[in-house]
Structures are given as C-alpha cells and as structure tokens.
Design a protein that fits this description.
Helix content is 22%, strand content 12%. By secondary structure, it is an alpha+beta fold. It holds the Pfam family DUF2256.
Length: 50
C-alpha cells in the first residue's frame, strides 16, 4: 500500500452506524477482519445483539 493517495484507500461501511471508514496502517494485516469503524461501534454491537 505504498504511495497510495488517501482518496484511493479501500473503504468499508460500519454495520452499526452506517458510516464509511477507510483503511488504516494499523489494520494492514487484518483489514479482512475489520468490521467496525471504532471501539464505540464494536461495543454498541455487543450490547444490541446480546
């Protein structure tokens, strides 16, 4: 992912809030596993599904 402009980064949509979020360097090796845009949304999904 070297030399890729920010507007060309992969995006996903958060299933909790519905907002799009972009690839981040810290997610480089686990991008296929990332579902939520933030810890807040991840925690909210557990509250609503449980």
């Amino acid at each position: 992912m070297k030399n890729v402009k920010k507007e060309n980064l992969p995006q996903k949509t958060c299933p909790v809030c519905g907002r799009p979020f972009s690839w981040r360097k810290k997610w480089e090796k686990v991008w296929h596993e990332v579902k939520y845009c933030s810890d807040r949304c991840r925690n909210n999904s557990k509250k609503t599904s449980g």
